C-alpha cells in the first residue's frame, strides 16, 4: 500500500512505525473473514481492512470524525486479523497509533470521557477495584436483574500459598482485577509451580501491566505503569529470576509488548527488551515440565472425573501471544478430555473494557461463544484470562475457571 503521511506525524517514531505497517498491507481482505465485528455488522469499515484505511486517511491528513472514532472503538483489539494476515501486518500496533491520533483530533463527549477516565483510574488499582467490587457484591441482592449480571458474585477463596522457597524463581504479575475477581488463580499457579521446584515471587511495587490505559488511548499513562513494573522487577531479574509470568494472558501479552512500547525511552529500552525475552505464559512453563506433571497427575484419580471440560482460548493467548493450542495440547497430554469448540478463533466479547464500552456487540459475541462452548454439554469451562472468565461466567451457570486451578485440584485433591 502506498502512503503519504502528513507533516504532523511522518517524522515521529509513531509515524515511521505506522508507515512501515501500512506499507505491508496489500489490501487483500483475507483478514475480514476472521474479524468478529465484520461478521456481526457486515460493514467494511467494521473490519480490519476498512479500519486500516480509516487510520491511513487520518495519518495522511484527513480530519478524524466521530464516525472514524466509532469504527475504531468497535474494534475488540482481538488480533484475530493478525493471525489470518498473510503479510504479517501488525494491525494492533497501527490501531493503537491511530486511536491515539483520532482521540486527540476528535475528542470525546463529556460522559464518554468521564467513563473512560473512571475505568482507567478504577481498574488498574487493585485496592480500588477490590473495594468497588466488594461494594457491588454487597448491593448485588438489591440490584435489578439487568445490573445484577454485571457484578460477579463472591469468588471461591484462594487455597494456601506454598511455604517452600526454591532456588529457581519466576516473577508473577498478580494483576489488578484478577486477585479480586478470581483469588484462587494466582495461588493455584504458585502451588503447581512449587511442585515443579519453582517459587513464584510477587515483587513489591509491581501493579497493572498498563493494558487498560493503552487500549483507552492513554499511552503515556500506560508507559508509566510499564516503567513502574520494570523498576519493581529489575532487582529480581539481576538476582537471577528466570522468567516473568502472568496467569491472565491479557496481561502477559501486554508485557511482551513492553520492548516495543518503550523502544524510544533510552532509560528503559534495554530493560524492556530483556523483560520481553523473559516473559512466558503459564502454559509454556508447565509444558516445559510436562513429563514431571504427567507423572504427578497419573497418581491422581481425579483427572478421570474431569471427562467433559471445554477450553475457551483467550484472544490474547492465541492471537496476541501466538500460543494457539498450547493449553489444549498440554491438558490433553495430561489426560484431560476437552470438547471441541467451533469458531474457537473468535472473541467472547470481553476484550478488556469492551464489554462495558460496547455492551451490545459484546453481548452478541458472548451469546455466540457460550453456544459454541456448551454444544457438547461440558461440566465446566476452562480459560486462561480473568476478563474472559468473568464475562463467560455472567452468562452461564457452569463453573468457569482458570485451567491452572483444575490442575491444582488434581495435584492436591
Ligand atoms: S489480510 Fe493483511 S494484507 Fe490483507 S488486507 Fe488484511 S491486513 Fe492487509
Ligand atoms: S482486532 Fe479483532 S475486531 Fe479488530 S479488526 Fe482485527 S479481527 Fe477485527
Fold blueprint:
Elements: H1 7-10, H2 13-24, H3 36-41, H4 48-59, H5 66-73, H6 80-84, H7 91-106, H8 110-122, H9 126-139, H10 145-148, E1 168-173, H11 178-181, H12 184-195, E2 198-201, H13 211-215, H14 219-238, E3 243-246, H15 249-255, H16 258-261, H17 269-278, E4 279-281, H18 282-287, H19 290-298, E5 309-311, H20 315-320, H21 326-333, H22 354-357, H23 359-373, E6 380-383, H24 386-393, E7 400-402, H25 403-411
Helix pairs in contact: 2-7, 4-7, 5-7, 12-25
Bound molecules: iron/sulfur cluster (2 copies).
- Report the strand count: 7
- Estimate the global geometry from the Cα principal axes: globular
Q: Count every helix, treating DSSP H or I runs of 4 or more residues as helices.
A: 25
Q: Calculate Rg over CA atoms.
A: 21 Å
N-to-C CA distance: 57 Å
Mean pLDDT: 93
Largest sheet: 4 strands, parallel
Strand order of the largest sheet: 2-1-3-4
Spans where pLDDT lies below 50 across 5 or more residues:
none
Beta-strand fraction estimate: 5-15%
The percent of residues in helical segments reads 40-55%
Structural class, from helix and strand content? alpha/beta
Question: Which ions, cofactors or small ligands are bound in this entry?
Answer: iron/sulfur cluster
Oligomeric composition of the shown chains: single chain
Name its key features.
four-stranded parallel sheet, three-stranded parallel sheet, 7% strand, binds iron/sulfur cluster
Describe the protein in words.
This protein is an alpha/beta fold. Helix 5 runs antiparallel to helix 7. The model has no long low-confidence stretch (mean pLDDT 93). The strands form 2 sheets. It has a 4-stranded parallel beta sheet with strand order 2-1-3-4. It is 54% helix and 7% strand. The chain is globular. Bound molecules: iron/sulfur cluster (2 copies). Residues 35-37, 48, 51, 75-81, 91 line the site of one iron/sulfur cluster.
Amino acid at each position: 500500500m502506498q502512503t503519504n503521511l502528513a507533516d504532523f506525524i511522518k517524522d515521529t517514531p509513531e509515524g515511521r512505525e505506522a508507515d512501515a505497517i501500512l506499507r505491508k498491507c496489500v489490501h487483500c481482505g483475507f483478514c475480514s473473514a476472521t474479524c468478529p465485528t465484520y461478521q456481526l455488522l457486515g460493514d467494511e469499515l467494521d473490519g480490519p481492512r476498512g479500519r486500516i484505511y480509516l487510520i491511513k486517511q487520518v495519518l495522511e491528513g484527513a480530519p478524524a470524525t466521530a464516525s472514524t472514532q466509532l469504527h475504531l472503538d468497535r474494534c475488540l483489539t482481538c488480533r484475530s486479523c493478525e493471525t489470518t494476515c498473510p503479510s504479517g501486518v501488525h494491525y494492533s500496533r497501527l490501531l493503537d497509533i491511530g486511536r491515539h491520533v483520532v482521540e486527540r483530533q476528535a475528542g470525546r463527549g463529556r460522559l464518554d470521557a468521564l467513563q473512560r477516565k473512571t475505568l482507567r483510574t478504577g481498574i488498574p488499582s487493585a485496592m480500588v477495584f477490590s473495594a468497588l467490587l466488594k461494594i457491588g457484591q454487597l448491593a448485588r441482592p438489591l440490584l435489578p436483574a439487568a445490573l445484577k449480571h454485571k457484578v460477579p458474585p463472591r469468588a471461591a477463596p484462594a487455597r494456601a500459598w506454598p511455604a517452600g522457597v526454591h532456588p529457581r524463581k519466576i516473577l508473577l504479575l498478580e494483576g489488578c482485577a484478577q486477585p479480586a475477581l478470581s483469588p484462587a488463580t494466582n495461588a493455584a499457579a504458585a502451588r503447581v509451580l512449587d511442585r515443579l521446584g519453582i517459587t513464584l515471587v510477587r515483587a513489591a511495587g509491581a501493579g497493572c501491566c498498563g493494558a487498560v490505559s493503552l487500549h483507552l488511548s492513554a499511552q503515556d499513562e500506560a508507559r508509566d505503569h510499564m516503567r513502574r513494573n520494570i523498576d519493581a522487577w529489575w532487582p529480581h531479574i539481576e538476582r537471577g529470576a528466570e522468567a516473568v509470568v502472568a496467569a491472565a494472558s491479557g496481561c502477559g501479552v501486554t508485557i511482551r509488548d513492553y520492548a516495543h512500547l518503550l523502544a524510544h525511552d533510552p532509560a528503559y529500552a534495554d530493560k524492556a527488551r530483556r523483560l520481553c525475552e523473559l516473559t512466558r505464559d503459564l502454559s509454556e512453563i508447565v509444558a516445559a515440565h510436562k513429563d514431571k506433571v504427567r507423572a504427578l497427575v497419573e497418581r491422581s484419580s481425579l483427572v478421570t472425573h474431569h471427562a467433559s471440560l471445554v477450553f475457551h482460548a483467550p484472544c490474547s493467548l492465541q492471537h496476541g501471544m501466538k500460543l494457539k493450542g498450547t493449553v489444549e495440547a498440554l491438558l490433553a497430554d495430561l489426560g484431560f478430555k476437552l470438547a471441541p469448540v467451533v469458531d474457537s478463533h473468535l472473541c467472547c466479547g470481553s476484550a478488556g473494557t469492551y464489554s462495558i464500552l460496547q455492551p451490545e456487540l459484546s453481548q452478541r459475541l458472548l451469546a455466540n461463544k457460550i453456544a459454541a462452548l456448551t454444544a457438547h454439554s461440558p461440566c465446566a469451562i476452562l480459560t486462561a484470562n480473568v476478563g474472559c472468565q468473568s464475562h463467560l461466567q455472567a452468562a452461564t451457570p457452569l463453573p468457569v475457571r482458570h485451567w491452572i486451578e483444575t490442575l491444582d485440584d488434581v495435584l492436591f485433591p
